[in-house]
Design goal:
This protein is mostly helical. The protein has 16 helices and eight strands. Helices cover 67% and strands 5% of the residues.
Length: 462
């Protein structure tokens, strides 16, 4: 065998081994995506089938119940649904995504992404595994879209094609990235050349993200508090709506499950109300702290039964503006590093960037939490994502920037005062005394003067 043929044979064997290695790595990842999608569908199916079994008069058979479970699974990923059986005969979209339902498939994808890679795996191998995982998940999703393409409530293929890959990629990629120890994400070559001269320390980026997360949490907590206060102040309206929707136990359990799934949506809507623009209840009504404009045409639902009445705002409604102010304070406080505060310019930039990231996060949440519930009057239902994102960024950046500068001044002053106290409390070290010239003269070896005198007198006595 010649050297060329031996080299060709070795290259062929290496390629075959690499192909088999990739096959052995891709199969578990693809299976992991299928399992994650199956577990999500199974969880929704268990809930729907339980309600279907305990219902005394189910409207449809087993196939209808499974269709509802598959529709809920797609809706949890942000995919819109379409109702075909309406009073007007015109198909009506369902675009409001229950955010609590979204948490379940996102968690499954996150865990599947973490299990698909090893902590010490190569970046290329990890990306390949995540890609195969997403492929398995989307394969199941395509089957679900086909299965729900008919019936009284069917899926929207275009919305599913836009939302399913994005949710799967973000959740699975986040899980794999966290499992590998959160390595630095390489930028494209062109973007790397542009940003080669810009160096942002990691602790500064962490400070920006930490401040933005604090702003989002304060806004959502304030929105949830406003929703709870509204329900407490109008307990009769919410309870009457709950009992009117169904008399059977299974129906009330279904209403309760939908209400619980929409609690995060209510928190986002409350945050939108506190930010000022408020939210739309159809095309003819707007709810905001300045007052309720128009006559809302609302479906009968407990979370909507306790909304403010039409009319101008009061001192209680205007007090909701304290929520974005508190969010701005949180952004400003956490934008300053406790250990080593940056300069004035960087501190202000951290607070402003934290407010910007907070606005982007609120825009994404609002886009998922709102959407149409029909045609005509219910074509607009919920807050506007771009308006809420802009107001959140403006509130938090405007309040957070001077707050961050004030916090930095206080911390720098405290640090300098502590340094001065340490210097005062430190014990003074006495300087050694200087030796006299006589002490500095070298001493010669020999007897002392008294010894020499005694030695001279000794011969004379003899």
């Amino acid at each position: 065998m010649s050297a060329a043929s031996a080299l060709s044979h070795a290259v062929h064997r290496i390629r075959a081994a690499h192909a088999s290695l990739r096959t052995s790595e891709s199969a578990p990842a693809f299976t992991g995506g299928v399992v994650a999608a199956g577990l999500g569908l199974g969880g929704f199916a268990m809930l729907v089938l339980f309600l279907w079994v305990v219902s005394p008069f189910p409207d449809s058979g087993l196939d209808g119940a499974l269709h509802v479970a598959a529709d809920c699974w797609l809706l949890a990923h942000g995919g819109d649904l379409v109702r075909t059986e309406t009073l007007s005969g015109v198909a009506a979209p369902i675009g409001v995504t229950p955010l609590l339902l979204t948490a379940f498939p996102v968690w499954l994808l996150y865990r599947a992404g973490a299990d698909a890679v090893a902590p010490a795996s190569d970046g290329r191998v990890a990306r390949s595994a995540v890609a195969w995982l997403i492929g398995g998940y989307l394969a199941v999703g395509a089957g679900v879209v086909v299965y729900t393409s008919y019936g009284p409530v069917r899926s929207d293929p275009l919305a599913a094609a836009l939302h399913l890959p994005v949710v799967a990629a973000l959740a699975a990629g986040a899980g794999a990235w966290a499992e590998r120890g959160r390595p630095r994400i390489p930028l494209p070559a062109r973007l790397s050349r542009v940003t080669a001269t810009v160096t942002v320390p990691l602790r500064e980026a962490v400070a920006v993200l930490r401040s933005a997360a604090a702003g989002v949490c304060v806004l959502l907590a304030g929105g949830a508090a406003l929703t709870a206060v509204t329900l407490v102040l109008h307990p009769g309206a919410a309870g009457a709506s709950f009992t009117r929707l169904s008399e059977a136990l299974s129906g009330r359990l279904a209403v309760l499950a939908v209400a619980v799934a929409l609690i995060p949506n209510a928190a986002v809507w409350g945050a939108a109300y506190a930010l000022g623009p408020g939210f739309a209840l159809g095309t003819q009504a707007l709810v905001r702290p300045a007052g309720v404009v128009g006559e809302p045409v609302l479906p009968d639902f407990p979370l909507l039964a306790a909304l403010p009445q039409a009319g101008p705002g009061t001192s209680l409604t205007w007090a909701a503006l304290a929520v974005p102010g508190l969010a701005g304070l949180a952004v400003g406080v956490l934008a300053v590093d406790r250990r080593e505060p940056c300069g004035l310019g960087r501190t202000a930039a951290h607070a402003a960037l934290g407010g910007l990231v907070c606005g982007i996060a609120m825009a994404l949440l609002t886009g998922f939490a709102a959407g149409p519930l029909g045609t005509g009057a219910l074509e607009e239902f919920g807050p506007s994502w771009w308006l809420i994102g802009g107001m959140a960024a403006g509130w938090t950046a405007t309040v957070g920037t001077p707050t961050a500068l004030l916090v930095r001044w206080v911390r720098v002053r405290r640090a300098s005062a502590g340094t001065e106290r340490e210097q005062v409390a430190a014990p003074e070290v006495e300087a050694p005394e200087a030796e006299t010239p006589e002490a500095q003269t070298p001493r010669t070896e020999g007897p002392e003067p008294e010894d020499r005198a005694a030695a001279d007198a000794a011969p004379s006595e003899a």
